[in-house]
Amino acid sequence: MSVVRDLILQADDQLRYPTGGELRSMVEFLSGGSRRLSVVKALTENEKKIVDEAAKQLFTRKPEYVAPGGNAFGQKQRAQCLRDFSWYLRLVTYGVLAGTTEMIQQIGLVGAREMYNSLGVPMPGMVEAMRTLKDASLALLGGDQAALAAPYFDYLIQGMQTTT
């Protein structure tokens, strides 16, 4: 769930105290807490703006998604699409906070293929949607904040690509 927890569990599994390197990793993780919180705050406070921009980018790149017969055609389907954008953005914030991709894997990727296939949503479309979510988020963040958040979006995108 977090770097600190993982390092403690690893040491405990081996019936030893954390090593100097593990302790330094914990200090580094903990000292970056305010930076992680600022990223999460920015993403959370701008969720609607990010989701709207990501949707605009996606539907500009893939207008067939909102055309008759497309997966985001109609008010209900579009609302569900935007709901998923928000949900995945929230998962990225969990990853940033915890300093690990574990929650993204467990909640966002395990079963994603089956769920989206059962709903008739092609995974390549979800991959493209996550790319636009990343682009909209990083453009809002910029600089060091974007560098901190980017790997979590990349993990999500890569995970969805491997489920296709």
Question: What descriptors fit this protein?
Answer:
164 residues; mainly alpha; Globin-like; 2 domains; 79% helix; 0% strand; elongated
Descriptive report:
The structure is a single chain. The chain has 164 residues and is mainly α. The chain has two domains: 1-31, no CATH class; 33-162, Phycocyanins (Globin-like, Orthogonal Bundle). 79% of the residues lie in helices and 0% in strands. The chain contains nine helices and no strands. It has helices at residues 3-13, 20-31, 33-45, 47-61, 75-98, 102-109, 112-118, 123-141, 143-162. The longest helix is centred in the middle third of the chain and has 24 residues, at 75-98. The radius of gyration is 18 Å and the shape is elongated. The two termini are 26 Å apart.
The H/E string reads HHHHHHHHH
Mean pLDDT: 92
Helix content: over 70%
Give me the CATH superfamily of the largest domain: Phycocyanins
Strand content: under 5%
**CATH topology assignment of the largest domain:** Globin-like
- What is the annotated CATH architecture of the largest domain? Orthogonal Bundle
Q: Given the structure, what is the number of helices?
A: 9
- Low-confidence blocks of residues: none
Envelope shape: elongated
